Amino acid sequence: MGILEKISEIEKEIARTQKNKATEYHLGLLKAKLAKYRAQLLEPSKSASSKGEGFDVMKSGDARVALIGFPSVGKSTFLSLMTSTASEAASYEFTTLTCIPGVIEYKGANIQLLDLPGIIEGAAQGKGRGRQVIAVARTADVVIMMLDATKGEVQRSLLEKELESVGIRLNKHKPNIYFKPKKGGGISFNSTVTLTQCSEKLVQLILHEYKIFNAEVLFREDCSPDEFIDVIVGNRVYMPCLYVYNKIDQISMEEVDCLARKPNSVVISCGMKLNLDYLLEMLWEYLALTCIYTKKRGQRPDFTDAIILRKGASVEHVCHRIHRSLASQFKYALVW
């Protein structure tokens, strides 16, 4: 029985099982097994395959944004509109076959935009180069999920499911759980809040499934078993995602209004160039970049050349960006 069959068996079992107090341990164990098999599925195969064409693109600029979506939703058209790079766009599916990079210049920052090939259902298992596409998406700072406004919500849920199964968590923060494996002393379990979704017994069962018998676990917030499994596995990527509905010129005003009111969503039309400026503003907000301008004493600040840093950066980061040796001789800074 292959890994794929095992995964589908467990998924069917989870769907069959009723959710109540009596079955929560059983469901917790099934979820742990499922996460384990999915991790095995993502490991590269041991057999030496023939060397294919390179897929990942070298990181450049101040931030990296990946375009993910089904074939023929307008990813390449969007890249051609926003950047000076021309990505081939045609009315048939899978026009784009490799990763095509472009650069958006906005507020003095260079944002690298990656046009990835369309994802199909089952991409997480490696269908249609799906694994490579998703691996590139993991390295991005923000994911733009391109959706066809005429197809409704089907595409969004399918894509979320594909990304979820390879450990990409969209618009979520890392669970506040302290977890540390130890050499001995059994499992010590504590929580600073009342837990409604996890219990000590369930935590022990999940840890035993991963063959961990000595560990320290502290819950600082009320988390679900899935989130606890994410903490144990430890290779999850938490990233902001912007849902972009393209082709709004083909649906009614009421439908556009309904889509635009959804959280983390923007409606655009690449064909008629509608609402693209607002999308850039939203993208800037999601990237959480800060522009810092330097000034010489007694002179006006130089607003032509900005230092672009992430949110939460300190003066030390600015020093490193200017020159490596500056931080060691640094005395003080005046900040406006």
Automatic annotation (TrEMBL):
Pfam families, alphabetized: MMR_HSR1, MMR_HSR1_Xtn, TGS
Ranges where the OBG-type G domain occurs: 63-288
Domain (TGS): residue spans on this chain: 288-336
InterPro entries to which the protein is assigned, alphabetical: Beta-grasp_dom_sf, DRG, G_OBG, GTP-bd, GTP-binding_2, GTP1-OBG_CS, P-loop_NTPase, Small_GTP-bd
GO function term, MF aspect, one: GTP binding
SUPFAM superfamilies linked to this entry: P-loop containing nucleoside triphosphate hydrolases, TGS-like
Alphabetic keyword roster: GTP-binding, Nucleotide-binding
Name of the molecule in the record: Developmentally regulated GTP binding protein 2
Natural source organism: Callithrix jacchus (White-tufted-ear marmoset)
This protein's encoding gene: DRG2
